[in-house]
User: Fold proline dehydrogenase from Paenibacillus thalictri.
Amino acid sequence: MKWDVLLKKTIFAVADNAAMQRFFDKYGMQIGVQRFVAAESLEKTVAAVKSLNAQGLEVTLDYLGESVTDREAALEAVDMILQTYDAIRDHGLNANVSVKLTQLGLRIDQTFCAANMDRIASCARNKGNFVRIDMEDSTATSQTLAIYKSLLNRFGSRHVGIVIQSCLKRSMADMRELGRFGANVRVVKGAYQEPPDVAYKDKKDVDANYIKLVKHHLAGGCYAAIATHDQAIIGRLKTYITERSIAEDQFEFQMLYGIASQLQKQLVQEGFRVRVYTPFGSRWYPYFTRRIAERPANLWFVLKNLLRR
Assistant:
């Protein structure tokens, strides 16, 4: 087993420890979480989005939360997401919204979740905005795609989008099907711990599949959100875009809040459209754990802040 895979498994194992979760619930925002999460309140998040917009950066807002098992909690999440669209409109923000279906009740009942997602997509359309459905672990992939396709038929790719993960072996087949519908797709590597029968474990395989997925989608004339901080991949795709004369309104680069900020600004200066995935809310622990697991440098950042306490 390669060291990076072992480290990722170790981080997830430690993160599941109840004592560790209690510690981060108490001290997390003081020792590093604030780098990756804009704020716990929507009001303070608005200020963060304004700052990003002022730098020429667009935003997608993610109200944190996942794996909800209570209907009331799912409905609370829907209400907050609808409030987020109001805040975008009221403050004139250059932003849209990303959502996770397990936060909206996918683990409870797919029909219930689909109804919640319908409310959100309707709001996005009515406000002239957009919602992207995040992809979660592989156990939710088929259900997520089913709900997305039903929404795509009604709202169109102008108002709803989806995510595909290059670590999953099924993703090229999914991308081919999505291409036939003209879907707006964000391509990510994937940050969930997956079994080897469904996911590539070698980084070079994940990276190679990433490039293939983006090229395939762009070649089909579809919109691709290129979500990566990997400068080698970005460089190869910039070359492909130039060589194929891909229109500037057919793609954007996306990166995470608090990561590779200089690269974000550099791409904006080069004339590219860049969107920052900006999470907010108090249920940040699972998101934060994945950021640590996918990039060890983030762990050292947190440890340094911990030692300063």
In short: The beta strands are 58-63, 95-99, 131-133, 160-165, 185-188, 224-227, 251-256, 274-280. Confidence is low (pLDDT under 50) at residues 299-309. DSSP finds 13 helices and eight strands in the chain. The longest helix spans residues 71-90.
